[in-house]
Write a structure and sequence with these properties.
Strand 1 and strand 2 (about 10) form a beta hairpin. The chain has six helices and four strands. It has a domain at about 70-160. The chain has helices spanning about 30-45, 45-60, 60-75, 75-90, 100-120, 155-160; strands spanning about 1-5, 10, 125-130, 150. Helices cover about 55% and strands about 10% of the residues. The strands form two sheets. Strands 1-2 form a two-stranded antiparallel ribbon. It has a two-stranded antiparallel ribbon with strand order 3-4. The chain is mainly α.
């Protein structure tokens, strides 16, 4: 238990961020008070904060790239980017119908999350495949939940954009 001088409450230690140089190893103010103070400081000095962020981004391109790669490779990050790129490709082909509901979009996103979970469980790469390809030789499918299936990457790559009956 620790006392926060900002909100004048005694809270669990888990409500305080770590600070290795302090005697107890914790920040003096709780996470919620520090967050509120940080937001207030940001709003007061918004232009300066944005400029500092731009300068840091410009001076540290490798760190920016590493952060982006780490996010893309995280469980939810990669599923998010895979879903987003599939949506983009299907939009370019006019393959996503306007009548899809929010539930349909959630089902599509869930397929990409499921593929990522399978990868973790099985140890092999999985792809979300369109049963009827978006750019087939004789047919063109839609980007809809019932046209998606999970396949090991090796099988999906060998299948290419052929429609298998």
């Amino acid at each position: 238990m620790k006392y926060c001088p900002s909100c004048k409450e005694t809270k669990l230690s888990s409500k305080f961020s770590k600070a290795s140089k302090r005697y107890d190893g914790l920040q003096s103010h709780c996470k919620s008070c520090r967050s509120e103070r940080r937001k207030a400081d940001y709003l007061k000095n918004k232009d300066r904060e944005i400029e500092l962020s731009k300068v840091w981004t410009k001076d540290n391109p490798e760190a920016v790239k590493a952060k982006a790669v780490k996010h893309r490779r995280s469980t939810h990050g990669s599923a998010y980017y895979n879903d987003r790129s599939a949506k983009h490709r299907s939009r370019k082909l006019s393959a996503t119908p306007r009548w899809l509901t929010e539930a349909h979009h959630k089902d599509i996103k869930a397929m990409y999350l499921l593929a990522k979970k399978f990868e973790g469980l099985c140890g092999i790469k999985y792809h979300v495949d369109h049963i009827v390809p978006l750019k087939g030789e004789n047919v063109c499918g839609l980007h809809v939940p019932w046209n998606l299936q999970l396949l090991p990457a090796s099988i999906n790559i060998s299948k290419s954009n052929k429609h298998v009956d």
